[in-house]
Amino acid sequence: MRKIDKDYNSILSTKYRAWVDNLIANNTIHPKSNSYYDDVVMDLYRVQKGICAYTEMYICVPELCLTENWIDGKYKIADDLVKRTDHFGELEHFDPSLKKEQYWSWDNLFMIHSTINSRKSDRAIVPYLKPDLADYTPEKYFDYDDVTHRFIPNTDLDSIVVKEIQHMIDNVLFLNHGVVINERKSYINNIKFRIDNNLPYSIDRFFTSVNWSI
Asked: What are the structural domain ranges in the chain?
């Protein structure tokens, strides 16, 4: 789980931001409205670089979150070669308890793989693993076994915290789900092959594990 920079003041969906600011100023419960759904989803993809906030799997085509798709603070894209549905993500509410009154709060939202989202359901994530926290770094809580390609807790942590993180890895974040491991392993091995053979390469997913493996 890489650190994500979600600076609220730098989002491109400024009309959505003004709408939420007005709700906050008037202490109003967020309405059940999808008027700014595309604005939120695509801006999240933009800051997440098109990957799942938890597994770092690639889940969105880059054309969907190009900066030119925002016009006058509103997300607009024509459904031609690239469609709004050309992604595998769903909105994740990091703290599910905020859904009822602050459904559209930018601070609480991420995009994650739809299958991971359905498996996770409303299971709570420990607050210190929120990837956009100012003091969050993956090295602080995780380590990576580049033989088995599994994430493991940082064993320098307190034993109770280690058990807690292991539970998060296996049963909430699904970082070591078999399909995720296979895709991660294949991607990293391809990068290593290209490096060993002096071939060009670029990294567009699994940033944390790639960084620890090469």
From this structure: 8-172
| The pLDDT of residue 211 is above 90 | yes
Whether 37 and 188 have beta carbons less than 8 Å apart is answered as no
Give CA–CA dist 12/28, Å, rounded.
23
Q: How does DSSP classify residue 106?
A: G
Residue type, 109: L
Q: Is the dihedral of CA 130, 16, 45, 3 positive or negative?
A: negative
DSSP label at residue 168:
I
The tokens describing 44, both together, are 């999240």
pLDDT attached to residue 57: 97
Q: How far apart are CA 117 and CA 123, in angstroms?
A: 10
pTM: 0.93
**How confident is the model over 152-193, as pLDDT tens digits?**
999 999 999 999 999 999 999 999 999 999 999 999 999 999
Q: Which two tokens stand for residue 32?
A: 């059940």
CB under 8 Å to 162, separation ≥6 — which residues? 153, 154, 155
